[in-house]
Write a structure and sequence with these properties.
The chain is of the alpha/beta class and 356 residues long. It folds into two domains: 9-245, Aldolase class I (TIM Barrel), CATH 3.20.20; 257-343, no CATH class. It contains twelve helices and eleven strands.
C-alpha cells in the first residue's frame, strides 16, 4: 500500500467536530438479492422497536449541540424496511427543522424497490442522495445480482431509474457500475447509461471493480487486481462522455467513516460498529445503544479505530481495519456475534461490552 499523506485541517476538523453527527443505520441485514460477490451474511430480521426508539432519543438529545446531522442507510437492503427509514427520517427532519440543524440523508440500495413513490417520501424528509449498483448489461447483471429466487433484477431496477429520470424529484443517484476481468458487459452498460441519463445531472457514475471481501462465495469468482483497476476505470469513463464519473479522481486525503469519532454504525439489534465492510470482524463490536438513546461503549475496543490521529498516519485514517495492527485491539475482544440480551439496558460509557 502506498503511503498516504496526512489529511487536511478541514478533513480533520470535520471528522472530530462535536457539531457533526453521522449515523449509519442498518434497518435490516436481510436482502432480497443474492449477489454472488456479496460479503454479508443476510441475517434475518428488522431493527428492533427498542433500537428505533433509541436512535430517535439520541437524535433528540443531540439537537442542541449539532449543526449537521447525516443519516446513511445501509443493509442488507434497507428498503425492505422502508417504514423504518420513513419513521426515523421524518422524525429527524422535524427535529432538525425545529432546531435549525442541517439534515442530509443517503441510502445505499440495490434499486429494486426504489420506486418514485418511495423516493418522493424520502426526498421530502431530506434524503436526497442514493447509491445504486449495477453489474454489466442485463444478462450478466441478472447472473451476478439475482433475487433470492434466482430471477433477474435488471429490468425492474432500470424501470425504476428511468421513471425517476422522468420525474421532477430533487435527488442525486450515483450509479455504481461494477466490473470484473471481462469488461465487455460493463462497456455495454456504460453506453446504455450514457444514452439514458447523459442529459440529466441528477445521475452520476462510480466505476468500481468487483472485490472478493469474503462471504459465502469467496474464492469462487475472478476479480481485477487493484493495480489494474485504474486503467479500466479510465477506459470505461471514456464511454460516458455525458455523465459525470464521480470516482475518476479519488480523494487525496480520505478519512474513512470508521475513523471518524462523530460517526457510528447502529445495527438492527442496537450493536454499535465502525466498519461497514467487516461487519462480523471481532474488532468491529464497540458497544450498544439502549431504548433511551444512551450509548454503552467499550473504550478499549473503540480506541484502536482512532489510532491514526496519534501520528496523523494517512493510511490508518483511510482504512483503520486494514492498517492498524491487530494487536492494538484487546485480546479478549469478541470473536463472534454478541448475543442481543447482553447488550440491553447498558448505559455507562465505560468498558461494559464483553464477550466470554
Amino acid at each position: 500500500m502506498s503511503k498516504l499523506t496526512s489529511p487536511s485541517r478541514t478533513d480533520l476538523s470535520e471528522a472530530l467536530s462535536s457539531k457533526i453527527l453521522e449515523l449509519i443505520l442498518l434497518p435490516t441485514e436481510e436482502c432480497n438479492f443474492r449477489c454472488i460477490y456479496c460479503y454479508e451474511d443476510h441475517v434475518p430480521g428488522r431493527m428492533s422497536n427498542a433500537t428505533v426508539a433509541g436512535i430517535k432519543r439520541l437524535i433528540e438529545r443531540r439537537m442542541d449541540d449539532l449543526q449537521f446531522l447525516r443519516l446513511s442507510w445501509f443493509g442488507g437492503e434497507p428498503l425492505i424496511a422502508a417504514d423504518i427509514l420513513f419513521e426515523i427520517g421524518e422524525f429527524a427532519n422535524k427535529q432538525c427543522d425545529a432546531r435549525g440543524v442541517i439534515l442530509a440523508g443517503d441510502v445505499t440500495t440495490n434499486g429494486f424497490m426504489l420506486a418514485p413513490a418511495t423516493m418522493s417520501r424520502l426526498v421530502a424528509a431530506k434524503h436526497q442522495q442514493f447509491f445504486v449498483s449495477l453489474a454489466g448489461a442485463r444478462e450478466v447483471h441478472d447472473r451476478l445480482r439475482p433475487l433470492v429466487s434466482g430471477k433477474g433484477t435488471f429490468d425492474r431496477i432500470w424501470r425504476n431509474l428511468t421513471e425517476l429520470r422522468d420525474s421532477s424529484l430533487d435527488f442525486t443517484i450515483d450509479l455504481r457500475l461494477h466490473f470484473g476481468p471481462d469488461i465487455i458487459p460493463c462497456e455495454a452498460l456504460c453506453r446504455e447509461v450514457n444514452d439514458a441519463f447523459g442529459d440529466d445531472g441528477r445521475f452520476t457514475v462510480s466505476l468500481q471493480r468487483i472485490a472478493d471481501l469474503g462471504g459465502a462465495n469467496t474464492g469462487t469468482f475472478d476479480t481485477v487486481a487493484p493495480e489494474d483497476a485504474r486503467a479500466i476505470v479510465w477506459h470505461l469513463a471514456s464511454l460516458l462522455p455525458d455523465v459525470q464519473v464521480s470516482n475518476l479522481y479519488p480523494k487525496k486525503h480520505p478519512i474513512c467513516c470508521a475513523a471518524r469519532p462523530n460517526n457510528m454504525i447502529i445495527r438492527t439489534d442496537g450493536r454499535l460498529s465502525r466498519c461497514a465492510c467487516q461487519l462480523n470482524d471481532r474488532r468491529n463490536f464497540v458497544g450498544s445503544i439502549d431504548a433511551d438513546g444512551h450509548l454503552a461503549l467499550d473504550q478499549k475496543q473503540l480506541n484502536p479505530w482512532f489510532k491514526g490521529y496519534n501520528s496523523f498516519d494517512g493510511n490508518m485514517l483511510a482504512c483503520p481495519v486494514n492498517t492498524v495492527p491487530r494487536e492494538a485491539w484487546p485480546e479478549a475482544a469478541p470473536t463472534g456475534l454478541i448475543p442481543v440480551e447482553r447488550l440491553v439496558g447498558q448505559r455507562s460509557t465505560s468498558t461494559v461490552v464483553r464477550a466470554s
